[in-house]
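Incident log, support desk, overnight shift.

02:14 A customer reports that sequence design results differ from what the structure should imply. Their input is reproduced verbatim below. On-call engineer (initials T.W.) acknowledged and began investigating.
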């Protein structure tokens, strides 16, 4: 009798386990709707003079005098997150990932393709100004972050005379220059067939900026100090950006110079993360395409590097160094964890796509990894973000019915100019808007917040920026995976 009870208990456990697994892989959020919203979000982050087709209508013109203090035109670009500063380092990374999404997923984007291109161009128009305005100088940011973070006001209310920051031969910034070159090179491929003149301008500028990056080597964190740290310090150094920039220029030009540069660089880190700061894994996956899809043996090293990275991410791999919450979410760091989830998920879906082209497989020890192995991991992360999680909460604002209402975002949390024409002073928005428990008056459609903690809990607290703040680089990384699953056979 005891044996029968034991077998019955085992059977119940097996059924429960497979029911849980089935629920994890069968969730089917509306990926097309999420894709559309993820791209619309960038309109909420725009700086400059807004176009007539602006969909997020509670935003208005802002930063129209950016560059004035340096006697240059630096109007445009994006605010990086919930603040009103333009940090070019994460902005360029955002642009690179958006461009990569269009390059590898354009056929799956459908009617959202034009919106994605527009989001890229809003940034590249600004980055071109930063790179071409003053010879020998690359502008890398507008707005004093230390002053800005003491304020809670709409972008539309900012003071006109904003600080301008740049790097040069005497104050180098190989990291921000390398990322800017990557963004411009990747974008040149996006526009190659739709605007050839613009594409050529982007590529020519990318090559000049990259030469600047390698000729005058040094970290922009050292050159600019508190203007970028601790906000967007280049913690991983600048070698990863040189690798990343060269990889994108090689894809854009096929010039052997860039392959030779990559080979001589000695960039051999073995990361288990991918982010606006650390680009090694992204460069490995990008370069691996030539080996996996193109069977080019010169790039086999990068294929191995990319697969080693996947082995550090996969939960069942004997080499995994990645934690997962009980609800199944990849968990890397406590502050804005979803930025790592979306960026790594982008690499996972992209490598799965490369594997599918040649029915390629690889091993993590005794674990056989197929394209489907990677697909299911990526789908679990995307579905979690869209509401398949213990709280049944979508971490994309405006998607579904249960989503964050108290987002750490100045423009979203304050009444719009049309509702409240009077300007908010620097500290004018703290009371009652920042500290109130009321929902934000404006919905920042498509924004993905920093996300839940390691216990799958999300407080929905505006003052808790590490969990409630959205960012352009979180969203940029999920565009490709959303497009992928919008037409995936897994649905």
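02:41 Re-run completed on a clean worker. Output:
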């Amino acid at each position: 009798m005891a044996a029968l009870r034991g077998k019955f208990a085992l059977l119940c456990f097996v059924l429960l386990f497979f029911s849980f697994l089935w629920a994890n892989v069968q969730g089917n959020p509306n990926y097309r709707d999420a894709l559309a919203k993820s791209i619309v979000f960038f309109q909420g982050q725009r700086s400059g003079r807004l176009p007539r087709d602006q969909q997020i209508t509670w935003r208005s013109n802002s930063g129209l005098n950016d560059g004035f203090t340096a006697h240059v035109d630096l109007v445009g670009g994006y605010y990086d997150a919930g603040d009103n500063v333009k940090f070019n380092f994460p902005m360029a990374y955002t642009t690179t990932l958006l461009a990569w999404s269009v390059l590898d997923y354009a056929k799956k984007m459908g009617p959202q393709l034009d919106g994605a291109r527009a989001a890229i161009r809003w940034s590249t128009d600004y980055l071109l100004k930063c790179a071409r305005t003053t010879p020998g100088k690359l502008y890398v940011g507008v707005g004093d972050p230390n002053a800005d973070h003491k304020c809670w006001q709409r972008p539309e209310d900012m003071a006109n005379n904003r600080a301008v920051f740049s790097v040069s031969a005497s104050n180098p910034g190989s990291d921000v220059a390398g990322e800017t070159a990557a963004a411009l090179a990747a974008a040149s491929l996006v526009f190659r067939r739709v605007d050839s003149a613009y594409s050529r301008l982007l590529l020519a500028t990318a090559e000049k900026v990259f030469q600047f990056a390698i000729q005058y080597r040094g970290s922009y964190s050292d050159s600019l100090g508190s203007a970028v740290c601790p906000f967007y310090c280049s913690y991983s150094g600048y070698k990863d950006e040189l690798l990343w920039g060269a990889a994108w220029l090689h894809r854009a030009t096929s010039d052997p110079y860039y392959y030779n540069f990559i080979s001589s660089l000695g960039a051999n880190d073995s990361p288990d993360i991918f982010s606006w700061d650390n680009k090694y894994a992204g460069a490995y996956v990008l370069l691996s395409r030539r080996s996996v899809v193109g069977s080019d043996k010169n790039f086999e090293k990068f294929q191995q590097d990319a697969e080693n990275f996947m082995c550090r991410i996969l939960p069942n791999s004997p080499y995994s160094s990645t934690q997962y919450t009980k609800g199944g979410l990849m968990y890397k760091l406590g502050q804005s964890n979803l930025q790592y989830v979306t960026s790594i998920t982008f690499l996972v879906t992209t490598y799965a796509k490369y594997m599918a082209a040649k029915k390629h497989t690889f091993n993590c020890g005794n674990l056989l990894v197929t394209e489907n192995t990677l697909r299911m991991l990526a789908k679990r992360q995307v579905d979690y973000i869209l509401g398949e999680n213990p709280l049944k909460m979508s971490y994309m604002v405006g998607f579904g019915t249960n989503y964050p209402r108290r987002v750490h975002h100045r423009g979203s949390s304050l009444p719009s100019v049309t509702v409240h024409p009077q300007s908010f002073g620097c500290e004018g928005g703290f009371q009652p808007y920042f500290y109130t428990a009321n929902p934000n008056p404006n919905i920042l459609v498509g924004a993905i917040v920093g996300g839940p903690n390691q216990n799958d809990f999300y407080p929905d607290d505006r003052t808790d920026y590490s969990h409630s703040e959205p960012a352009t680089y979180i969203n940029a990384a999920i565009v490709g995976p959303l497009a992928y699953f919008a037409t995936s056979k897994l649905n």
